[in-house]
Design goal:
This protein is mainly alpha-helical and about 220 residues long. The chain is built from eleven helices and no strands. The N and C termini lie far apart (about 45 Å).
Length: about 220
Amino acid sequence: MPAQDVDAFALTLRLAAVVTAALLLLGTPLAWWLAHTPSRWRRPVAALVALPLVLPPTVLGFYLLVLMGPQGWIGKLTTMLHVASLPFSFRGLVAASMLYSLPFVVQPLHAAFEAVGKRPLEVAASLGAGPLDRFFTVALPLSLPGFASAIVLGFAHTIGEFGVALMVGGNIPGRTRVVSMSLYDHVEAGQYAQAHVLSLLLVVFSFAALLAMTYLRPRGATHA
């Protein structure tokens, strides 16, 4: 495998790990809120979280690029704070990937928290457990399959993304060129042997992720 492809794989794995970890930190309280809030904003927020599932990646990438650019409010904020601009950087790639992979982490967590139900939490509260104690000692252990699914889906989805990464990150070797872009470059150059290698690796990885999902699913889920 060419050195540029190895670098692209390393960068992609690093990106997927950072994005997945960040989404777990941000997505867990959001999923908990969606599962338990009586607010009328719950459905609009849930729809907003799920928007990347149906929105073309290039559309999301375009608007993120505009927002992060010099005239966008995010770009103006980074300039005011004397922070390096986000477009065409690894940090910008992380931010864009987090938005694009958000539903793949939040939705499994949301479903897992809803499956726990209120009864175990009410019992824990009656025994004197506080909110954080109830979450970490009751809800979290019962939701572990959901967390495992969220990790697998978030990681796998970030590995395979292309449109958002290209729009926001560009295709800079060693900085923002992920494996999907490297595959595209090989096809565009007529280097089908290298493209086959990358494609096969992605197919194997995707199949392994889906296979892992079947083992993580609770036994009764397929009969629900």
